[in-house]
Amino acid sequence: MTLIDDATRFCYVYLLKSKDETLDYFKIYKAEVENQLERKIKRLRSDRGGEYFPKVFDDFCAEHGIIHERTPPYSPESNGVAERKNRTLIDLVNSILDTAGMVGEALLTSCHVLNRVPNKNKDKTPYEEWIGRKPSLSYFRTWGCLAKVNVPINKKRKLGPKTILSSKIDVPDIYARYFKIFFEITPELNAPTEAFEPPREISPEEDNNEAPRKSKRQRVEKSFGDDFIVYLVDDTPMSISEAYASSDADNWKEAVQSELDSILSNGTWELTERPYGCKPVGCKWVFKKKLRPDGTIEKYKARLVAKGYTQKEGEDFFNTYSPVARMTTIRVSLSLAVSYGLIIHQMDVKTAFLNGELQEEIYMEQPDGFVVKGQESKVCKLLKSLYGLKQAPKQWHEKFDTTLTSAGFAVNEADSCVYYRYGGGKGVILCLYVDDILIFGTDIDVINEVKSFLSTKFDMKDLGEADVILNIKLIKDESGITLSQTHYVEKVLSRFGYIDSKPSPTPYDPSVTLKKNKRIGVNQLKYSQIIGSLMYLASATRPDISFAVSKLSRFMSNPGTDHWHALERVMAPRFVLEGYSDANRIYDDELYATSGYVFMLGGGAVSWRSCKQTILTRSTMEAELAALDTASVEADWLRELLMDLPVVEKPIPAILMNCDNQTAIAKVNSDKENAKSSRHVRRRVKSVRKMRHSGVISVTYIQTEKNLADPFTKGLSRNVIDIASKEMGLRPI
């Protein structure tokens, strides 16, 4: 492993037995540089070798404030200093190497020499610039020259030689770190005898170092594409010193001060002496520019974040689970608001995670740039939660939950992030998604009452009538509410270069059969980014692309040209949506069938899913039963959600489940068991029957062409897609 200082070109070389030792030697290098030379490592640039990718390596760099830069794939020129140094070292090793088994020593010697030789660009040697004084070259000798070793006085004989002839291989360091003399005689110096055997010459043919066995596992080379370079071109500051030295220093200072004021006014910590044996949690400043839809800067944001990755489970934290409202819950609530004429408002909790009460005793270092003078040795004892802590989301939800339940709100049993209060003909429903709150009320007075209550408990921002929630725009008209993500779609298309693409009639071509790519992947990073963007779109407002996204997401590890063509087809259509859906069907030559379901409420789809089944089915009927079981579970959850909302009329009738397979329906409606069915299929049949008997669902037959679940199982023709989209509430642009 070579480590080169970029300014002086001084080089360190370490001989590793395996790449697992990379971090250990980097720690040794860091300790020597800091202790002996009083220098600090600020940035580390490396290639994309696997030895630099373990999480422990990233954690070590982050813990010591070292910015780790990795070069783009197949771009050795991005790390030219190290690449050129390695080539120079190898050339020098090949020039001086003439003895078997001495490659490591030759490499150390080459590094030692190059550090003490000036280059054409500088008058001083790397050693002089690095150490601060000129190097001594008096001990330099030719590699492999003969040398005489002085025999210790207690080993000398009266008539014997005073020195022993040997082969002087190397003098790589003045402190003899790597100094080695290889005697040409047997090492009898420590136990002299009357006679000794003549030296045995070392021959290259006698080198018994066998090459390690090559792994037979086939490795597919990954391609991240040219777009990976964008990660290296980012003007967002990585530290408070970079922020204050940038051209936007005034804006960053204002953002930092605003964040610190919120923390101090909230009583998040108190300064105290560090307890004996305590290792405080570190912290860092995180900066971000919040952009408007047109790309201009709306706000400069600074956040003080604790380094939660240094916490130890069982000491600093225990449970970390924190729920958020499901997207289906939000859609159901919006649909109910249209049906019952509810008013919808929105609020945002400023620095929400700072409100959580900590149950553990946690100490943190003072934030960079705001260390109190005269109290540098003290640490911050956290009284309340802070962003970055493992338990921060959980503590915030518990604080919010306690606050609302103490004010008379009830918690929905199906979704613990839904709260409601009803009485006297007036009611209000709250949906919490981390720090975003949707408020549904029967009139404006009850909504204002809730807003006033929340403002007395937390630092709130009143956003008025709900306009945009979770990147979804709410468009209200006489017919109801349209959920639109046009701005998000345009942003995704523009980001990946598909803004001017020709529209495609359907998201997926039914004539295409996709299989795993066994060749080199094509731009895997960009493929994954597009799939990630489409997944959110498919789960929020685009049920028509659910099957295509679900199908294409199975090839993210190594996409090929065929997968890219199919993905570009998904990126082509553009719609404005208001519904949500899912379905089930067996497709192409895969072993596992694809399941999906769709639930409609108030004229629009509110819940859907398209996914591969987890069990192996032997017939279409078994696949339909497995899918019906998955849909029934969602139906049970939706019914439980509606049962706990005060605006819904009770009792709720059984949810009608439409299925286009008459054999599967007969199987569910019959109480007879078929011993030939697989055990896992029988379990699912019993589950569906139980829900049917309890009145949760009722199963009926529907023709395939009228089944809205069909588009979620396979690619279909344009006419079928258009009809299904219209039924689900989709509106073409």
Automatic annotation (TrEMBL):
Positions of the UniProt region annotated as Disordered: 194-219
GO terms (BP aspect): DNA integration
PROSITE patterns for this protein: INTEGRASE (PS50994)
Alphabetical list of InterPro entries matching this protein: DNA/RNA_pol_sf, Integrase_cat-core, Retrotran_Ty1/copia-like, RNaseH-like_sf, RNaseH_sf, RVT_2
GO MF term list: hydrolase activity; metal ion binding; nucleic acid binding
UniProt keywords, alphabetically: Hydrolase, Metal-binding
Tree of life domain: Eukaryota
Cross-referenced CDD domains: RNase_HI_RT_Ty1
Residues covered by the Integrase catalytic domain: 1-134
Biased composition (Basic and acidic residues): 210-219
PANTHER family in alphabetical order: RNA-DIRECTED DNA POLYMERASE, TRANSPOSASE, PUTATIVE-RELATED
Protein's recorded name: Integrase catalytic domain-containing protein
